Amino acid sequence: MNSIRPRSLPHLLLALFLTFAGAQQAAAQAPADAADVKKEGVVPGATAAATPATIAAPAAGGGDAAAIAAGDALFKGNCTQCHAINEQVVGPALSGITKRRTIAWLIPWIKNSSKVVASGDEYAVAIYNKYNKQQMPSFALSDKEITSIFAYVTAEEGKGGGAGPTVANVAAVDGKDGAEAGTESGGGKYVDVLLIVLVVVLIVLVVTLVIIGNLMKDVLRGRKDLDGRDVEILEQRFDWNKFYRSPKLRAIVGTVFALVLLYEGVQSVMAVGLTQGYQPTQPIAFSHKLHAGEHQINCAYCHTSVYKSKSANIPSANICMNCHSQIKTESPEIKKIYRAIERKQPIQWVRIHNLPDLAYFNHSQHTQVAGLQCQTCHGPIQNMEVVYQYSALTMGWCINCHREMPINAKDNKYYDNLVKLHDTKNAGAPFTVSSNGGTECSKCHY
């Protein structure tokens, strides 16, 4: 006769494992696809060189939209470290500045305030003395860019907190606005709840199947019309001792163990000389999360050569003093800066990102020419309380970027013939750094 053959517990456990693994992979893939991190820099606006030059003079009610937009980017990138519009920070509040001074006076003041003070200008000398003879840095901005800043200042007068950091601004640094961040957070919670519910349902299902299987066995044992084969199937037991002693199982376990050891060995050898995740303790507890994230200080304000030099310099103590001669002067960490200046000794910052001497890397070529933002290589620097090496900085990591990164050849005659030759041989393929010889050995190795 045909009898019901209940599945054994190992089969049920295997089915449970496969189902749960598939659900977990699907759930993990969803947030991974959604986590396409926007490669935006820490800069709150554009750099001075990249700011549109379409500027209009400020009027009583503000300038035109283009001037205000350009001024917004320039103000946040150059002025917010010391100034707000409607409140005093390190320097005076800028509300009503165009009524106190003319644009013709403000332009040379911003370009070189020390020169205006040295000329004996009464207003300039008064400001200089009022703020403890704190010299305002000089800015290499054009007349139009300076005018656009005051167009933005005029438009923002009387709106409250000026250009100080807000929740929306801080969220924008991460590449998301508040609504997107909230949606993503809520979606993550729903996925977690869904996984928990799924696990509970599967556990209940397994327990139910085991109970049903045992009940079916009890029912079948009470029947007297079963033949010998049916009884044999009903009373069969899984021989775990035989399973453990199986030569095939031992061969499989031994092979897997050998492969794991081989893999770990290769990974250890390949990691020699790599310092990804390196996070040394610095002599002064400087927080990038506070300065670059919450206060949105432009990277170039401290790392002054980030857009124009082969190396991004370490800030000197006098840059710190531009703000900290007035702010948090009693902080134990800030007093370390004072001591370094008094002793005429540089602060011994610990270098984090190191490349071997055999590799050539030009910082300005990537930031100014290619337009890459800080997070492309340094990760979410605006969220780091203590900076660590985010990227691997290996040769393969660099080459992969060169193979995928397209070159912006628009309105650049240098690339015209190169793009034509590329399109002739590789129609439809993007013109990448690799297409321009970016993977040749001599590009990075002397």
UniProtKB/TrEMBL annotation:
<feature type="transmembrane region" description="Helical">
    <location>
        <begin position="193"/>
        <end position="216"/>
    </location>
</feature>
<feature type="signal peptide">
    <location>
        <begin position="1"/>
        <end position="26"/>
    </location>
</feature>
<keyword id="KW-0349">Heme</keyword>
<dbReference type="InterPro" id="IPR036909">
    <property type="entry name" value="Cyt_c-like_dom_sf"/>
</dbReference>
<keyword id="KW-0408">Iron</keyword>
<keyword id="KW-1133">Transmembrane helix</keyword>
<feature type="domain" description="Cytochrome c">
    <location>
        <begin position="66"/>
        <end position="157"/>
    </location>
</feature>
<keyword id="KW-0249">Electron transport</keyword>
<dbReference type="Pfam" id="PF00034">
    <property type="entry name" value="Cytochrom_C"/>
</dbReference>
<protein>
    <submittedName>
        <fullName>C-type cytochrome</fullName>
    </submittedName>
</protein>
<dbReference type="InterPro" id="IPR036280">
    <property type="entry name" value="Multihaem_cyt_sf"/>
</dbReference>
<keyword id="KW-0479">Metal-binding</keyword>
<keyword id="KW-0813">Transport</keyword>
<keyword id="KW-0472">Membrane</keyword>
<feature type="transmembrane region" description="Helical">
    <location>
        <begin position="251"/>
        <end position="274"/>
    </location>
</feature>
<dbReference type="InterPro" id="IPR009056">
    <property type="entry name" value="Cyt_c-like_dom"/>
</dbReference>
<dbReference type="InterPro" id="IPR020942">
    <property type="entry name" value="Cyt_c_III_dom"/>
</dbReference>
<dbReference type="Pfam" id="PF02085">
    <property type="entry name" value="Cytochrom_CIII"/>
</dbReference>
<keyword id="KW-0812">Transmembrane</keyword>
<keyword id="KW-0732">Signal</keyword>
